[in-house]
């Protein structure tokens, strides 16, 4: 009894054939394969080797021929392009051996798959979890393929796409793009396209999910769709593995160019605090689970902070920000015009990061416990929260005001703004409760010239008010999605 070696010959270049496969081909008594692939291994065949080449869709015939030759005592090499176990001949041969109760020995040799070759030509697009989907419905029902496409999109997998299009299958790639966008993938998600990877007429290009033109690809093209962290830098498509915060090349180009990437990687990890690492991972988890992927950066940064603090994804519907509110307020911090944050209660002030306040030269104040407040409240017949805001406005009319508890305090500020006594740099409105809470937030909306961040409805809290202030103070970390600097 002979032996069958199932070998993946790579995508089509001699330099991508592994030494083990080259040895198997050169020692085989017979080689069986699709006729197109023989051009890549002809020069390695030993003299007198039998070559049995068949056309497309004749896989079962090739498997039977290999079995018959092995019965005759020959060493048979069955070749597949790429890796023989990925859409190749290996599964068929093992299945056939089992069905016909044959004793022939089968050995599988791996090869470089087309998606791996394509990835190397694109840069580093598969640095994280990935899946591979074929759009050919010759042996798989389309409804099942579509179910897999939707799962890949929902799970934020990097997705390699085989058989994206043929003469008879012209619409499937259009449908894949539609599903990915339906499931919340950003229209700007990078997509890498490689045609005839490793062969003489190889072509490599990148585009985005929304700009992808299915008419540009054919059955010889492999596509790699990035995940939510994938980005383009020059001609390279890169998916971070997670060892670095943000895009490493944008954070530390000098270190990269110096050739010290390994040591810098270790240093980057060691310099980060454990709490910062946890927050970093939490933000990425939240970002991947948002129903809507495309938000203005400032709004998204505030939203991630709000959800991280509450674990409540309803914040995606409740959080309101004026256009560029976070950006405008951070600019006031950066240029030194915002020096004070006034909160309605002590708990809100306590939650604002002391490291950020010290780094930026900002003071967080609460007037509720000020001895003067009780006197004002008694004299003027208002709540202590209202009295505290009156006193705060006298001393800091242009502060950033943050509310996490008392709707009466927010209502008082709105009244003082209408009277021309207060000119806040901005307002964070997150009072919580059942009495006058929603009304206080509605009262705030007409002030169009004041940057506002509002948690709509009854929900809110001092923790929310504080975290939204933290989002403003750390907005310069938003682009790289790198929270927790001042923990």
Topology, pairings included?
Layout: E1 3-8, H1 19-27, E2 30-34, E3 50-54, H2 59-71, E4 75-80, H3 90-99, E5 105-109, H4 114-122, E6 123-124, E7 130-134, H5 142-154, E8 158-162, H6 172-182, E9 190-195, E10 203-208, E11 221-225, E12 231-233, E13 236-238, H7 248-251, H8 253-257, H9 261-271, H10 274-289, H11 297-310, H12 315-318, E14 319-321, H13 325-334, E15 340-343, H14 346-351, H15 354-360, E16 363-366, H16 371-380, H17 384-395, E17 400-403, H18 407-418, E18 426-429, H19 437-444, E19 452-455, H20 462-473
Parallel strand pairs: 1-4, 1-5, 2-3, 2-4, 6-13, 7-8, 15-16, 15-17, 17-18, 18-19
Antiparallel strand pairs: 8-11, 9-10, 9-11, 12-13, 14-19
Helix pairs in contact: 2-3, 5-6, 10-11, 11-20, 16-17, 17-18, 18-19
Could you write a compact summary of the structure shown?
The protein is α/β, with parallel strands linked by helices and 487 residues long.
